[in-house]
Design a protein that fits this description.
Elements: E1 3-8, H1 13-18, H2 29-39, E2 42-45, H3 55-63, E3 70-74, H4 91-95, H5 113-132, E4 136-142, H6 151-163, E5 169-172, H7 184-194, E6 199-202, E7 222-227, H8 242-245, H9 252-266, E8 271-276, H10 283-299
Parallel strand pairs: 1-2, 1-8, 2-3, 3-4, 4-5, 6-7, 7-8
């Protein structure tokens, strides 16, 4: 399967509350995953952003899905320079935090080196069951707007790839300057040299925080597109929850814009993953299904 479509998160509260996707009686996370896997061949696991899961939980993900199903997994927030709550750390590692860091958000650069090393090791161990089962697609490192284009940032991306040796990673930038006239060629060349997929994004155009709709393939293994919706009214709302900021129901015409782009990406990459992150009601699953239909029609 060269092109896979799916959504970000199978236990999204807004999707569950809509009662428009999961059948009656499908109520537990495991049951929802099993049903979801009958509808799509790809899902993005985003709970891993909020905490490092237990390996036994990830084992259940693999057990609940058929052969050929794929998980893309978001990096733990700590590793992408996002503020991380101490309670998000594994309990024993949390106990090792210096006293002054236990009551406020923590950042990677504030932690002792040995604690950072152990957190990375726990994260890799947590994903091993998916990798062993052949269910792991890529680990997404979504960097924030304050992650600026610089040699220091590129060095950190290299470190991430080395830390995740044996796992496929992909990167998403949130600072448009990564792809401006000064930096674009260097950014894409760096990713190609490292064989790291650039995650293309669909977002409302025209905002200072909007990444351009660039769909360059930088790895022969994988290309990724994430659809964040085009809600101009909520895009720049600080602290807005995802089901508000990304609340957008794509019309068929806008999804259709991506069909030739995705087919072009397919010519350069072994697989293309298209993920709906417009988490409100059943918008994401409805749009993912429609995109699948449009891609299938293009093939005929």
């Amino acid at each position: 399967m060269a092109i896979r479509c799916g959504i970000a998160g199978w236990i999204d509260r807004s999707l569950i509350d809509s009662k428009l996707f999961y059948p009656m009686g499908v109520t537990s996370p495991d049951e929802r995953l099993s049903f979801y896997a009958t509808q799509f061949a790809l899902v993005e696991a985003d709970t891993t952003y909020y905490g490092i899961p237990r390996p036994e939980s990830v084992e259940r993900w693999a057990a609940r899905t058929p052969e050929g199903f794929v998980f893309d997994v978001k990096s733990f927030s700590l590793f992408t320079h996002h503020p991380t709550k101490p309670m998000s750390m594994p309990p024993d590692l949390r106990e090792e935090l210096p006293d002054e860091l236990r009551s406020k958000n923590i950042y990677l650069e504030h932690l002792p080196a040995e604690l950072v090393d152990e957190a990375w090791e726990r994260f890799r161990m947590a994903l091993e069951p998916l990798e062993a089962a052949g269910r792991l697609g890529a680990v997404f490192f979504q960097f924030p707007r304050w992650f600026l284009p610089s040699s220091r940032s590129l060095s950190y991306v290299e470190q991430v790839q080395e830390r995740m040796h044996g796992f496929q990673i992909a990167v998403e930038f949130r600072k448009p300057e990564w792809l401006d006239g000064r930096h674009r060629e260097g950014t894409l060349a760096f990713l190609r040299t490292r064989d790291i997929p650039y995650i293309a994004v669909d977002a409302p155009p025209g905002h200072a925080t909007s990444m351009p709709a660039v769909h360059e393939v930088t790895s022969s293994k994988l290309a990724v597109v994430r659809f964040h919706g085009r809600n101009h009214d909520t895009w720049d709302l600080q602290g807005a929850p995802p089901n508000l900021r990304f609340r957008y129901d794509y019309p068929e015409t806008e999804l259709g814009e991506w069909v030739p782009r995705i087919k072009e990406m397919e010519r350069s990459a072994k697989e293309v993953h298209a993920i709906m992150n417009n988490n409100y009601s059943n918008y994401s699953v409805k749009n993912a299904q429609k995109l699948e239909e449009l891609l299938a029609a293009w093939q005929k």
